[in-house]
UniProtKB/TrEMBL annotation:
<dbReference type="GO" id="GO:0008289">
    <property type="term" value="F:lipid binding"/>
</dbReference>
<dbReference type="Pfam" id="PF02645">
    <property type="entry name" value="DegV"/>
</dbReference>
<dbReference type="InterPro" id="IPR003797">
    <property type="entry name" value="DegV"/>
</dbReference>
<dbReference type="InterPro" id="IPR050270">
    <property type="entry name" value="DegV_domain_contain"/>
</dbReference>
<dbReference type="InterPro" id="IPR043168">
    <property type="entry name" value="DegV_C"/>
</dbReference>
<keyword id="KW-0446">Lipid-binding</keyword>
<protein>
    <submittedName>
        <fullName>DegV family protein</fullName>
    </submittedName>
</protein>
Length: 290
């Protein structure tokens, strides 16, 4: 009988409740703030990190999950009798974490040739951030409780990830300026004019889809962009930060427009907040093929 373990990283923004309920193992990114080093989800929760971020004058830096950490994890899961490990990582274009996992799997099989055919490691590139792949992990883990074979679960997860799009917006350019995502001069002009970029994340890339003037224009524009691309009657999620009111505003607008509520809400952790800031809102959905 198959014994499947789901593995992901803390940038998936899966809640602690779902982590425990579905027995998902989350590997946590480390965050350096000056001379101090912290581990996501252990040394701080999201609310505490938002405050730390606001108080810190420098630029926090996240470190990749190493091949050694993955190899140790694979060794442990193999010794515990798992038959399959489905590991989904943060966007491979934004972190070396996925490549480290692939390297670790190769090293594991080199050290344990007898494991081939008995212990299968599936490494999936999340191609995005937050609930874009966190949702796939949660759904995959739910399917495993219904005895869906690992290969079928992986096919489902890869299909979601391949077609998943996020439209989101930060409510300030302060953090994007600090992290270098937006040049200082452009950030200054944008703040003076009240411009807010609407970002689109898909297939490893983050691009500015459009800009709106003023905070009140953010939700209507994200709503408009989402319904034009989303496959009708498919599930969607809300992404948000420290302000639950904009989460609720986005959820209510989507529910009114498409006729059903979001299936999950993902609160951004350190990996996203460092660049976008703590106040964001957006929608995660499956897009129509173009």
């Amino acid at each position: 009988m198959a014994k499947i373990k789901f593995l992901t990283d803390s940038a998936s923004d899966i809640t602690e409740e779902l982590e425990k309920k579905l027995d998902i193992q989350i590997m946590n990114f480390k965050v350096a703030m000056g001379d101090d080093s912290y581990t996501s989800r252990i040394d701080f929760d999201n609310e505490k990190f938002y405050k730390m971020l606001d108080d810190f004058d420098g630029i926090p830096v996240t470190s990749q999950i190493t091949a050694f950490e993955y190899q140790e994890t694979f060794e442990k899961l193999y010794s515990e009798g798992y038959t399959d490990v489905i590991n989904t990582t943060i966007n491979s274009k934004g972190s070396a974490t996925y490549n480290n996992a692939v390297m670790a799997a190769e090293e594991f099989y080199s050290a344990h040739p007898e494991a081939k055919g008995k212990f299968t490691i599936y490494n999936i590139d999340g191609e995005s951030y937050s609930g874009a792949y966190g949702y796939a992990v949660v759904q995959g883990a739910m399917k495993a409780t219904k005895d869906v074979p690992a290969a079928d679960i992986v096919a489902f997860m890869e299909d979601w990830i391949k077609n998943c799009v996020i439209f989101f917006a930060p409510y300030t350019l302060k953090y994007a300026k600090k992290s270098g995502r937006i040049p200082s001069a452009a950030a200054f002009v944008g703040e003076v004019m009240g411009l807010r970029p609407i970002m689109r994340i898909h297939d490893h890339a983050i691009v500015t889809e459009t800009k709106v003037r003023g905070d009140k224009a953010i939700v209507p524009k994200i709503l408009d962009l989402t319904v034009k691309e989303m496959i009708p009657q498919t599930p969607y999620c809300i992404v948000y930060g420290n302000d639950e009111s904009v989460r609720d505003e986005m959820a209510q607008a989507m529910t009114k427009k498409v006729g059903y509520p979001p299936v999950e809400c993902f609160q951004i952790g350190a990996a996203i907040a460092i660049n976008a800031g703590p106040k964001v809102t957006g929608v995660i959905f499956k897009a129509q093929n173009k």
